[in-house]
Amino acid sequence: LTRSPYEPLTPTTMPARLGGLPEMTRRLGPSAEWRVREVGDGNLNLVFIVEGPAGSLVVKQALPYARVVGESWPMSLDRAYFEHEASMRLGARDPGRMPHMHLFDREQAVQIMEHLTPHIILRRGLIDGTRYPMLGGHLGRYLARTLFRGSDWSMETARRKADVALFAGNVELCGITEDLFFTDPFHDCVRNRHNPLLDRDVIELRGDRALKLAALRMKTRFCTSAQTLLHGDLHTGSIMVSAEDSRVIDAEFATYGPIGFDIGSLLANLWMACLAQGALRPSDDEATSYRGWILALAETVWKVFVAEFTHLWLTERSGILGGRELLEHQDDAEGAALALNALLDEIWRDTIGFAGIEMHRRVVGLAHIAEFEAIADEELRAGCERRALRLGRALAVEPERFSDIADVSALVAELA
Ligand code: ADP
Ligand code: MG
Ligand code: MG
Ligand code: MG
Fold it and tell me: Where does the record place the Aminoglycoside phosphotransferase domain (predicted)?
């Protein structure tokens, strides 16, 4: 694999190029019997499913450009390296939530990993109206464990500094987040696009100083608050689900940033899925019922996050920010509770701020969501998108309205 210079794989060349790897043949059987499909629904990368007589695997390879735009948007192959490094860490911090990695080749920007099956992308499941009883618990614990265990409350100083330095190298993908989330949607940028029926809303939005100040406030949090190693792209298209299992994929945007960023990205996508239900379900009753399930899912994610984060803070707080000398060791349990509550309040405020920004970029920025794009009727779609902008603005500009996640659920239900 490494003896040749970088070259994109194809279904035709895959058996010859990877057929000598025991990591492949042990799990698949001989390369002459492989069947290879490219399945990347992919914004950025090539993803192949390789099936053989003994089993199946996924091969993901970075391209030297962004697949969704083409060769005119060059992009570093080393994003595969950062994805692999991040996946190893996130996978170890909450074992079982990431696909198992079998092999990584930096020169070819190739990751060979477990084929998740019969899993589907969560966003697809939310469009289809499927319920996943285990999902809220899985995601709440995943968030608490990865975000706490990658933070200064858990990590020892030398390891933490070396790790920050390593992920500072993921400058290109982090820069995409800086632009695409926090800047592009709020001015007239060529990368943006929107439903033409929203022309007037977009003019209003780009003259909305309070909103732009909120975008700058959240960009400042994202860029300057290196609290933990984030997944960095944790929307419902980066989660794969089956009836009992939930997995997180696609960590190439990993960067050190604020704990609320991953949580806010995920919750925003759940809340936007709620706003699409009126147009996606066959009847109002079904829309109301399924929307209720998604709202309860979002609340479970947050509540399980808080419970697990609290547990880890009490039992695993051994890193740079241990702080027990000042609190517990002085028998000040009340002080310890105040410290934890202040931290959880800050995380909640960040979470809703980032959720509000995410909603804007998904309606008027470059990358849109399938829930809205799936609505064929332009008027219906515009209605959903407009409600997402209203919800997003309230979250970003008036965070004091939402002291609890139930306050967000109430506004989602009212708008929908
Ligand atoms: P990109 O970085 O291009 O977005 P992803 O890692 O999100 O690539 O993968 C693209 C698609 O490939 C996913 O939406 C999913 O359908 C499929 N996929 C990726 N990894 C796996 C896996 N381990 N098992 C099964 N399907 C996968
Ligand atoms: Mg994708
Ligand atoms: Mg990706
Ligand atoms: Mg992806």
Answer: 36-272
